[in-house]
Amino acid sequence: MFSEAFPDLRTTVEDLVVETETGKIAVRWSAMGTNRSRYLGIGPTHQPTRITGIEIIEVRGGQIVRRWGEWDITDHAER
Fold this sequence. Notes:
This protein has 79 residues and is mainly beta.
């Protein structure tokens, strides 16, 4: 499980764009955490790991109706 693999994970919102006409929100984020258990067949490395990502969320009537996301876990995979 992700939260067990990186129990001290800290996430930072790097960019946030809200398009009120279309109801879409874009978020670029980064996270740092120490790998404390096996994740995606790697670890535990006990090393700090940086993960970055982008999420696009579509909201209608106050509800999330669609979500697209991409994560870059290269830092973890290269250990």
